[in-house]
Amino acid sequence: MASTNDLKNGMVLKLDGGQLWSVVEFQHVKPGKGPAFVRTKLKHVLSGKVVDKTFNAGTKVETATIDRRDMQFSYMDGEYFVFMDMTTFDQLMVDKKAVGDAANFLIEGFTASVAQHEGEVLYVELPAAVELKIEHTDPGVQGDRSTGGTKPATLETGYEIQVPLFVTTGETVKVDTRTSDYLGRKSN
């Protein structure tokens, strides 16, 4: 348990019958009249839904301990992603649902942050940008280069993104894991 006066960004609260909410923003408000209160913006840990919630100052709220560990993706085992803890070498099988969109950018050897609560995997988070090889893309047509157009390209994970016309098959590119946007070629 913690007081609403002790809130910090990133803190995870257990509200509404055990649902996990992460504090995105908070603001202590002391109006001229009436009691002080805390205005918060909370993000649901599993769904990503963001809501505004107001608490009276000093209200007790239940906190949840989220264990975040950097783990290396080892391989796929059916519908499960197998991650290895690099300190203990323990293997953890993570359901495809918990991995979510991160699956589009995971290849063997990548390090990801795996968040757990009471032994249950909540989500898998990748770095903001990753470098992946272009498995296939059609060549850009001569004369189209000045338009700044894009074309589809299949990454080594099998996921398709849009890239500029000058990018060729076999090149390594940087990709934003949050938006799937092309960020540039790999710098040598």
Automatic annotation (TrEMBL):
On the tree of life, the source organism's domain of life is Bacteria
List the keywords (alphabetical): Cytoplasm, Elongation factor, Protein biosynthesis
The molecular function terms of the Gene Ontology recorded here are: translation elongation factor activity
Q: In which pathway does it act?
A: Protein biosynthesis; polypeptide chain elongation
Subcellular localization is given as: Cytoplasm
- UniProt signal peptide: none
* Domain called Elongation factor P C-terminal: residue spans: 130-185
Q: Which CDD domains match?
A: S1_EF-P_repeat_1 (cd04470), S1_EF-P_repeat_2 (cd05794)
Q: Which residues form the Translation elongation factor P/YeiP central domain?
A: 68-122
The family database entries (SMART domains) matched by this protein are listed as: EFP, Elong-fact-P_C
The record, for HAMAP family, names: EF_P
Record family assignment = Belongs to the elongation factor P family.
- Function of the molecule: Involved in peptide bond synthesis. Stimulates efficient translation and peptide-bond synthesis on native or reconstituted 70S ribosomes in vitro. Probably functions indirectly by altering the affinity of the ribosome for aminoacyl-tRNA, thus increasing their reactivity as acceptors for peptidyl transferase.
Q: What is this protein's name?
A: Elongation factor P
Q: Which organism is it from?
A: Streptomyces virginiae
Q: Which lineage do the record's taxonomy fields give for this organism?
A: Bacteria, Bacillati, Actinomycetota, Actinomycetes, Kitasatosporales
